[in-house]
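Board notes (copied after class):
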Amino acid sequence: MADSREDVSDAGAQVPRFESALSEGRDRFLAHVIEHALSVGRRSPEDFIRHFPPQRIMEGLADSPELRAQILVEATGLKQRIAARKPWDSAAQDLQIALTEGETSAAAILWGFHPDDRVRYLQRADLWAFVVEGDFWNVDPSSPQFAVAKAHVAFLLERALVDQLIAHRDIVEGITLRELSTRLPKVELATIIERALDAGHRNLPFTEAELLSAFPPSVLADYVPLPRVWKGVILPRIAERHGFVEAAAPLKSERPPGASDWGSSEQVASRGDEISEDDFASS
């Protein structure tokens, strides 16, 4: 997999060179997230093969003999003509034997399995389970793995914005203005509030996109606890909303229906995506 990503020492700076060509946003997102997890070392080829052993991979490719052959050729050196004629169960057996006997490796198998094809032929929910295994967002901040977890959480947010799985408003509402106001640096936050109030006084919009331009996901992950980002944004607004996991039943709340840190649902609808003076006053 060495050719598919930048070799950079800073986990937050590692960005896969790969660019997904999948047509659906949630599929592009998943392909990129898997590559990023492998790039920063959060997940390994061995983890992938543990989740998707040869039997599962080849069964997923049951109707794609060319792709099965490609993996066999890349991973085992089998002749193309022979690999192309093997049914999926025979291909799975050959690949498993090669892996067991040390004639191939998890990395070699993954190298022959293109990131987009993983998403095309394997189940989204299973791929998501591979990505999130270990509850990495709960890692202790003193752990050596915290920098990697932080980089991966930031990437999830950034990629979800790029692929339009969420809007900037989802991030702000999921974390809440109240939380942001207590976590972000006071000097910078004061500048943002001044800009928002000034825009409001002049009847100009100040949106969540403008707010997050000063505090992008990579900065938010430095100040907002990762569990808060996960529970407020990634789980409900990415994973559940887009079918990577089954949505949890809504919890009962003492707050009126539609109420949020932004005011009532009617108030939110009336002002669209703009942040007003009232938003900051309520937090």
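Comment from the instructor: The radius of gyration is 22 Å. The longest helix spans residues 146-162.
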